[in-house]
Amino acid sequence: MTTSGKKPAPPIHKNQIIDFIGGTREGVGVRNIMIGIGTKDRAGVKQAIKELEEAGEIERTRGKQYVLSGRLPRVTVIEVTGTDEYGDVVATPVNWDQDAEPPIIFINPEKRGKSRQAALGKGDRALARLQPIEDNNYNASIIKRIGFAPKTILGIYRETDEGGMLEPTDRKHHFDFIVPPENINGAKPGDLVVAEIESGRKLGRASATITEILNIERPETSKGDQPYTKIALHDHNIPYIFTDLAVEQAEKANAAPLDKRDDLRDVPLVTIDDEDARDFDDAVFAEPDNDKANPGGWHLMVAIADVAWYVRPSDELDKTALERGNSVYFPDQVVPMLPEGLSNGWCSLRPDEERPCLAVHMWIDADGRALRHQFVRGLMRSHARLTYNQVQAAVDGSPDDLTTPLLESVIQPLYGAYDALCRERLDREPLDLDLPEKKIILDDDGYVQDVQSRLRHDSHKLIEEFMIAANVAAATTLEEQKQPCLYRIHDEPPAKNLESYRQFLKSIGFKLSKGQVLMPRNFNQILKKAKEGEYFDAVSQMTLRSQSQATYTGKNVGHFGLALRRYCHFTSPIRRYADLIVHRALISGLSLGAGGLDDKPINTEEIGEHLSVTERRAAVAERDVVDRFSAAYLSGKIGETFSGKVNGVTNFGLFITLDEIASDGLLPIRSLPDDYYEFDEKRMSLKGSRNKYVFHLGMKLDVVLEDANPVSGSLVLSILGTNTSPGRQRPKPRKKSHKSRKRSRKSTRNR
Predict the structure, then answer these.
(1) For residues 688 and 690, what is the distance between their CA atoms, to the nearest angstrom?
(2) Whose CA is closest to 697, among 646, 644, 749?
(3) How far is CA 61 from the centre of its chain?
């Protein structure tokens, strides 16, 4: 037998294409890409480019050139944001609508000629020609000035011995603003206000004029009247007032009839949630499978509140829920997706009350592998409202009056099924990241009593595994029924993130080959290796940062983190609109009665994009409020000492996570021991050039709390025992040209 002497073309690695495109100043075409990566396989390159385009990694310009996604047009409008550490003017693009932080634009010195026009100042806008440099940043040459952007600011109005003052909510503003008497415009001390900053470059403290007093109503269930949640609602434009019609529809809701529903009222379903949970939308049950063909197997049931029965497509409740996208949970209040009449009423699985539900029966084998499942519409009655701590205590040998009668018949079977699901999880090897989460403890007046890290028991993981199994069953059923599915996807980590991750690991002595394909199990191996060392927290954070953002979409690409081929959200329709869409699709596909999808085609891409945005909006708002409450708690501890770890390194200082309450604070470079410090971005460290002090990611430090600002949520720290002249960043070399210095600049950005 003879074979052709022609060798098959080597495989095309998409990372090579991304690296090559990223290293060019301009866009490149297919031919140049082939030359750059050393291949003659045109078809293979074009296929790889197509996949990278679909994944959003690269974009095609009008001239059929390819650039990395997010690269700015050559000519664009920019706005000056200030100066960098070298005193050079920097800017950002005006029309930046991406979730990531905008690139830094370094402005070349203007040729002012005879007009002697004043230099560009903060807030000035200009049309500029951009030249890409390293780290997706740019040099800019000014074409023409456009004007000055009007500047408004959100803050708390105060009255002091010096007169009216505005305390900004944005931590980027380091000073208060003077509010002259004629500019107060009716504001009272403590009011949350919008003000306009006086333009110009006058010396001394800037002044502001109050233009709006924000009267944000608080629900009756909220604790106290602290301004922190109000700030987040305004900052992030979160809808919090229901229309009269939506409230009216919710109040008219009533009990659902048994009718054709399965009668599940005698099934001992229970809810398991946190002590401070405000809504109960899922209940669970498990029992050994009595099928002799499935020895050691289990029958599980997950029952979810039937929100689709009460919220029909295109009615006022539906429009309101879609606009909000999800509920938002703050320490002192909840901004629900649905009015209280539903979210805490007919759609909440309260104990001993009959509630309509959409339930899924699931049968698994002894190793947790799914055998079959069945969705039903039912009428249920929760047999108990349990908490994670309560259930865990019962399993650990300390049951209370409520869990004692349920231990053998209800709780132990749940753990038996959970053990089987854990075996399947071990075989699947999803990403195992367990990052600490803060919990704010408030008194009845809304003041912080304590800030704690939330504990995660097996009882938490049990519910997680039951919910994951139900979500997979929902996605599988929708595919089988050829119904539209709003998938919850988590794509593979972007190549540029992996390269940064590799460089970080290299700096701490971990080897990771360039271009190595990483699966969740590989990340787990790295985390396991780091577990016992000083870098574990840093490795955990960098592993998280390397991942793609989970989103909603109508196109399935799987869930990388969970190591699942298909996944959607089914289990929380009270608080997530995505789950409500899935419920409707299941009802339609399985002919389960009223409340399914209507005849109008559903645009899963458009809805998915909107819900991904509202989800991120909620997450950022929740984090901001937790930071402000944490700062309020710590404001009474200024001058005290805390232990912590470095979780971020920049050219202007260190970010420290305090061990006691997992709050993050800035340790400015001026608070480091006297030296000139060089920032090494690859090693994530600051190194003193004279005394050789080195501060690196993961390093343990004892710090003193110098300031805690509840309004902005910022903490400022210093190193314990440091009593020297302030540290400085190493000055730029005097002989280095402006142009070459610009090209070697490294991007540094706040957390």
Answers:
(1) 6
(2) 646
(3) 30
Region of poorest pLDDT, from 204-208, 279-283, 504-508, 693-697: 204-208
The whole-number average pLDDT for the span 200-211 is 70
Supply the pLDDT for residue 79.
Answer: 85
- Say yes or no: 436 and 331 in one domain: yes
**Residue 3 covered by a domain:** no
Same domain, 451 and 388: yes
Gap between the terminal Cα atoms of the chain = 63
Based on the domain organization, do 336 and 425 belong to the same domain?
yes
In a domain, 220, yes or no: no
pLDDT at 115 over 60: no
Q: Does 662 lie in the same domain as 520?
A: no
Question: What does the alpha-carbon distance between residue 195 and residue 240 come to, in Å, rounded to a whole number?
Answer: 22
Rounded to whole angstroms, how far apart are CA atoms 226 and 284? 37
- Helix, strand and coil content of the chain, in percent to the nearest 5, comes to 30, 25, 45
Bridging pattern class, strands 138-148 and 105-107: parallel
Q: Are residues 310 and 430 in the same domain?
A: yes
Indicate whether 675 pLDDT > 90. Answer: no
Shared domain for 56 and 99, answered yes or no, is no
* Amino acid at position 362, single letter: M
Q: How many CB atoms lie within 10 A of CB 469?
A: 22
Residue 647 has φ and ψ, to the nearest 5°, of -115, 0
Q: Which residues, in sequence order, are CB contacts of 295 under 8 Å at separation 6+? A: 366
Q: Which pTM value belongs to this model? A: 0.77
- Among residues 685, 715, 718, which one has the least CA distance to residue 701? 718
Helices of type H across 386-457: 388-395, 412-428
Q: Which residues of 637-670 are buried (b: 16+ CB within 10 A; e: fewer)?
A: eeeeebebbbbbbbbbbbbbbbeebbbbbbbbbe
Q: Measured between alpha carbons, how far is residue 298 from residues 291, 413, 715 in Å?
A: 9, 9, 50
Instruction: Give me the domain span that covers residue 207.
Output: 152-215
| AA letter at 358 | L
Longest CA span, the chain: 98
Torsion of CA 545, 551, 556, 560, to 10 degrees: 20
Backbone CA torsion sign across 635, 636, 639, 645: negative
DSSP string, 552-607: EESS---BTTTTBS--B--S-TTTBHHHHHHHHHHHHHTT--SSS--SSPP-HHHH
The CATH number of residue 62's host domain is 1.10.10.10
Claim to verify: residue 343 and residue 439 sit in the same structural domain: yes
Q: Is 374 found in the same domain as 249?
A: yes
Mark which of 594, 625, 656 sits at the end of a domain: 625
Token pair for 122: 């903060």
Helix H, strand E, coil C: the string for 479-533 is HHCCCCCCEEEECCCCHHHHHHHHHHHHHCCCCCCCCCCCCHHHHHHHHHHHCCC
> Who's near 603: CB < 8 A, 6+ residues apart?
554
